Hints:
The chain is mainly β. It contains 3 helices and 33 strands. The protein has helices at about 40-45, 100-105, 260-265; strands spanning about 10-15, 20-30, 30-35, 50, 55-60, 60-65, 75-80, 95-100, 115-120, 125-130, 130-135, 150-155, 155-160, 170-175, 180-185, 190-195, 195, 200, 205-210, 220-230, 235-240, 245, 245-250, 250-260, 265-270, 280-285, 285-290, 305-310, 315-320, 330-340, 345-350, 360-365, 370-375. The strands form 9 sheets. Strands 1, 2, 3, 4 and 33 form a 5-stranded antiparallel sheet that branches. Strands 5-6-7-8 form a 4-stranded antiparallel sheet. The protein is globular.
Amino acid sequence: MYSNYTPSYVVVYEKGNNTIEWMSLQGEPADFTRYFDNMIQRINPEEPIKGTYTGALYSTNELAIFTNHHPDYGKCISMRNADPANGYLYNVGEYTGNVYGKMYMGTASSLNIHNCTFGYGASKYFICNDVLHVFNGLDRKLPVFNESTFVKSTEVKQAISSKQFQRYKKATFVLHKDGHVGCYHVYDDVMEDVKVDGEPFMLDSLYGCFTEATGMGSNKPYCVYLLGSRNGEFNLYRFYVNYINRVVQPLQLEAKMPVDADFAKSTKYWWGSFGENYAFYTIGNSICRFDYYEMETFEPATAKKLITFDADEEIVDVFPLTTGMGLRDEDDCTIVLLYKKSTNTSSLFVYNTVTGKKIKEYKNIIPGKARKVEKVI
């Protein structure tokens, strides 16, 4: 029976009564054929996921939902049917274990997991108790870790990568508590400390990141843009990522573009087109697009407002998609998660990434505040 619920996409949402739920969506964003809300209530009604949502990590076979609830700190959920012949014993929607004890095998008395990111073909990562753990993006199982395994860096405040974080443009920036910024590119390489004019690159906060659309494959040069603040000043930095004989080289700062502080703090998400020289940001209830080709100064006044949603709708997250399996720089569509506080419901808005043209809207189908959407691979 559970196989009827097998998702093509999954949405994690907060119910509003200190519990977390998820929704199974079947079909493609342009025309979801069926969707099933309250999947935990359907399959595990005796074991709701309690606590405050802190993140979610998808890993092909499974989905982990992280919370602040002691002692489990969230649940791990099967996203596929059981395959006993190959040692996989869980059906869609069944719990595969608690986060603490199934994924985390260390000795800490509490867990704080956040900054969770899954980049298919690249890596997946999160910060747990100030330690950045990075794992193979192609591994179908959720990672098993402790304080000393899969550690990329310690004393970490933030990690950020482009929402186009896919196979080919993998730069991830790591901000440490002392302000110095590091960068890594694949799950099993060594993080570099970013240097500018021979000195450590220092920031107080990371606000956004996007990568250049080049049309080239893996281990080819590209630019990555980072919005960050230092001592109250905001800048959009352009770094050049170079490869020599398929080996990535230290980042080179090409441009530092001042950004108005009030404007920067009012933006929420930044991302780029996969196939065009456009980047996007959200500000208030609007999505704006700007052209970064040969850009040496950032001028918000030149940006085009692509979409403006209703005043009572909050943009919770955006999820830009490539065509197929993301094997080339090509735009598909973008899914926007919208939350309406007055009704405690969320909607999905699907549009053409570059033009902003509406493709489909699924109004108020999520009975709670949507937090994350993932494509099930």
